[in-house]
Amino acid sequence: MVEIPATIKDIAKYTGLSIATISKYLNGGNVLEKNRILIEEAIKALDFEVNEIARGLRTNKTMTIGVLIPVFEVFFNTIVSSLENVLLETGYSVIVCDYRDNEKLEKERLDFLYKKRVDALVIVPTYLKGNDIRKIIKRDIPIVAVDRPIEDFECDTILVNNFEVSYKAVERLIILGHRKIGIICGPQNIYTAQERLNGYLKAHNDYGITVYKDYIKFGEYHNMESGYKSMIELLNNPEPPSAVFVTNYEMTLGAIIAINEKDIKVPDELSIIGFDNLEMAKIVKPSLSLVVQPMEEIGETVANLLLRRLKGEKNDFPLRKKLDAQVLIRSSIKNIG
Hints:
The protein is about 45% helix and about 15% strand. The protein is an alpha/beta fold and about 325 residues long. The protein folds into three domains: about 10-60, 434 Repressor (Amino-terminal Domain) (Orthogonal Bundle), CATH 1.10.260; about 65-160 and about 295-325, Rossmann fold, CATH 3.40.50.2300; about 160-295, Response regulator (Rossmann fold, 3-Layer(aba) Sandwich), CATH 3.40.50.2300.
């Protein structure tokens, strides 16, 4: 015997409330707290299932948020998880797409998410520009750029203080007497890589220290091998640096492999500051000094901002907010002054 699914009328009968009140609640409207409790109790007791497709057609809402990231890796995964934790409490679900650092795929994935009629978009852009987004996005939906701004496009943007924290990391090495400081940067076309390099350069300039071009290497953010190759090049320099700042997690892993392969003793022969992942810092011996980004805070900030925008709150639009990363000093750097 086929069981007949519960309907709104069944909930009305169970609770004694009007169909209008129940419909208002199911469509995301505000109802009295005592009525909300009654309705949720009835939904559970009657095993009522909301038809999300039908509700989406009525309300023009799908209760989904689209998230577009370059790759699935620790930094972005943690942000998405934190974002999802906040949104789930309000009934929203998340559709996540990665575009594998591919320009064509980035636009295709954005188009895919938009055609899923998501209520809002979270974008970590690499190649996307304002014109690309305007060609695809025809509805007025909230868009939040994360980690990097979108060129020529006005939207909310949540960033990290990349310039300032890079400056602080390099300044700490300078204070400890280091004058030959290498840096392994990300791709030159990416905003975060530019900011981290600029912080490195500004610290040198402020302290009157010569910048050696041979000590500046450019790798790929999501490629451990590029960190390895860059570190090998630095170590093979006729006058190798006494300290190296690696500006991304995957490149940090590659750099550590190169140091171990070369049998370089840290910090006696080389001081190093890496990027992200506290668990890695505990495993590596001696314990690794790190720049740590507020990944969970980024996700929570984006989620709460989206919820405000979805309610129509635009008094502070477009919001551009920088969150603070921290320099955690461990045993991997040495005073040589």
